[in-house]
Design brief:
Belongs to the small GTPase superfamily. Arf family. The protein is an alpha/beta fold. It has a 6-stranded mixed beta sheet with strand order 2-3-1-4-5-6, with helices on both faces. α3 links the parallel β4 and β5. The model has no long low-confidence stretch (mean pLDDT about 90).
């Protein structure tokens, strides 16, 4: 009997799409998760892909730029996604929050995304004007809209990456559950 330990099992990879308006902090959060510098971040034009390593999985995150010119093409990039990260600026103007709400609602109802787990990050919680997670939940009408879907709503800021990592771990847990369900069918 051999008792040598082989290489560690490969980590499961999940393809995740990350959306949100320009300035919501998508790039900063993802760069921090990858331990990259965040001092000269510019708005994402088009999209970028980052492989974000976690202890038990690797998330291949396709981040889509949030500018109006790009937003209308978001749905072209949804195919093949297994999960969704939606980042919103909880300290933004009411107008921008309204736009973010509309975008989140259409993502939650999109045929290619509606069955997927969602991680919704109420970002910039470190700013004085930030609305609480409860306020966001109520304003975005998440309870009635996302009933029956798997979703997580968490506050986030680049100052507290432990909390952000924990939120992503919860998303990975939902992705794993979905995987197991698919395996049972």
């Amino acid at each position: 009997m051999l008792c040598c330990k082989g290489p560690p099992p490969p980590r499961t990879e999940y393809d995740v799409v990350c959306i949100g308006l320009t300035g919501s902090g998508k790039t900063s959060l993802l760069s921090k998760l990858c331990s990259e510098a965040t001092d000269n971040i510019v708005p994402t034009t088009g999209f970028s892909i980052k492989a974000v390593p976690f202890q038990n999985a690797i998330l291949n995150v396709k981040e889509l730029g949030g500018a109006d010119t790009i937003k209308k093409y978001w749905s072209r990039y949804y195919q093949g996604s297994q999960g969704v990260v939606f980042v919103l600026d909880s300290a933004s103007s009411d107008e921008d929050l309204e736009v973010a709400r509309t975008e989140l609602h259409s993502a939650l109802q999109h045929p290619q995304l509606c069955t997927l787990p969602f991680l919704i990050l109420a970002n910039h919680q470190d700013k004085p004007a930030a609305r609480s997670v409860q306020e966001i939940k109520k304003y975005f009408e998440l309870e009635p809209l996302a009933r029956g879907k798997s979703w997580i709503l968490e506050g986030s800021s680049v100052d507290n990456m432990d909390a952000v990592k924990e939120s992503f771990s919860q998303l990975i847990h939902l992705l794993e559950e979905k995987d197991q369900e698919a395996g049972r069918i």
